[in-house]
Sequence to fold (281 residues):
Amino acid sequence: MASISILVRARNDEALIGRTLEGIYSQKVALPCEVVVCDDGSTDGTRDMAARFGVRFFERPPGPYKPGRTLNALVGAAKGEIVVFNNSDAVPLDENWLANLVRPLLAAPEKPRFTFANQLPRRDASALVRKDSERAFGDGKVQATWRFFFSLASSATWARMLREAPFDEGMQYSEDVEWAWRNSRRAEDPVEIVYCPDAHVEHSHNYTLAELARRFRGEGKADAEIFGDRPSLAREAAAAVRETLRDWAYLAPHPRDWREMPAAPLRRLVQRISHWKGTRE
Fold:
């Protein structure tokens, strides 16, 4: 019987980590599980809150934070054959999240697979955040038309796969996408990326314009490294226009959300211009 290590990365998530751990410990799954929390120097009550649940703590590697280095160290410390990554702010929404997330792995244990969960927006999510979440996740039909999509925030795979092919420790953004893209395209025994729409977690962010700029600049740099992307500024501007039109079409039937219409063009321009700058770095 396989066992599961649920690996939770946390930083200053006192407001949410309690709900996340409650959700994790309420799961209905027949396999033995351990919960490991890696707290990245929280200055609030995150660590104390996690300690109430009796989790095993793991100290991240010293030095500047590199996501891949921390993830590889966590996988190395995991005792389970299956590793589940679940951010401290990704709250399981029902008692079947874990079973639904690992089912594709258990159905074919000989196959290299990496699953990821359906991330639903929080109650306080803005309308445009809800729209983006529904397109990226939801029933999976939209993401299936994109070049590639994957999210580590709530996901699962076999520990042996990550030990044989670790995360790139040089990536500062999109280390999960880099791993999934690289290993899903390898010539021999490619990894199958499986979306699990019935594995529900609550996870979204109402980013400010400055936060959007920082995130998309980082993702732009990563896209250049992973995919070789170097889009023109005109192409990025056209993408911003298309997304703004989709925003307005989404908002139009809901008068209570019309207040977000004026901000939509600015937010999309900030995203695309920041992404363009990142691809040039």
About this structure: The domain at 4-202 is CATH 3.90.550.10 (Spore Coat Polysaccharide Biosynthesis Protein SpsA; Chain A). The chain has a mean pLDDT of 97. Residues 220 and 275 are 4 Å apart (CA to CA).
